[in-house]
Amino acid sequence: MKRHPVTQEGEIPPGGRKLVSVGSVEIGLFNVGGEVRAYRNACPHAGGPVCLGRISGTSLPSKVYEYIYGMEGRILRCPWHGWEFDLGTGVHIADPETRLKEVPVEAGGLERFPLERTDGTLYVLLPG
Ligand code: FES
């Protein structure tokens, strides 16, 4: 794994995001409840720029004719076709088998990159 500096500690406020490029890899950094997550900017559905999507909540499982809204600030909605992912875990909210990918890359999901913190700088770790 190779370390690439991507942001300074505190640069991304809670609920905020920052897009960076490391070589040819576009990465979305998200502050989710004080923890920064790093995902590849490629949707598992059709490769859309998922990290540019709206951050919101979503409707939660409920009874017929009942509408329960929740997870505010934890849902990333892909701008191309609306697939929704839990920003904290990378999991597609309707299909837990589809998720933002952990490294190494798995089929069927976005790719999540590990982060390291040294002297106030966050580094993304990429293979190679
Ligand atoms: S490319 Fe993301 S939902 Fe289709």
Give an account of the 3D structure.
This protein has 128 residues and is mainly β. The chain has one domain (2-122): Rieske Iron-sulfur Protein, CATH 2.102.10. The protein is 0% helix and 46% strand. It has strands at residues 2-8, 17-22, 25-32, 35-40, 54-60, 68-77, 84-86, 112-113, 115-118, 121-126. The strands form 3 sheets. A 4-stranded antiparallel sheet has the order 2-3-4-8, with no helix packed on it. It is globular. The site of FE2/S2 (inorganic) cluster (FES) has 10 residues, from loops.
Secondary structure layout:
Layout: E1 2-8, E2 17-22, E3 25-32, E4 35-40, E5 54-60, E6 68-77, E7 84-86, E8 112-113, E9 115-118, E10 121-126
Antiparallel strand pairs: 1-10, 2-3, 3-4, 4-8, 5-6, 6-7, 9-10
Helices and strands, in N-to-C order?
EEEEEEEEEE
Query: What is the CATH superfamily classification?
Result: Rieske [2Fe-2S] iron-sulphur domain
Structural class based on helices, strands and sheet pairing: mainly beta
Ligand types: FE2/S2 (inorganic) cluster
Roughly how many Å apart are the termini?
6 Å
Radius of gyration: 15 Å
Number of helices in the DSSP assignment: 0
Going across the major beta sheet, what is the strand order?
A: 2-3-4-8
- The percent range for strand residues is over 45%
CATH topology: Rieske Iron-sulfur Protein
What's the total count of β strands?
10
CATH class wording:
Mainly Beta
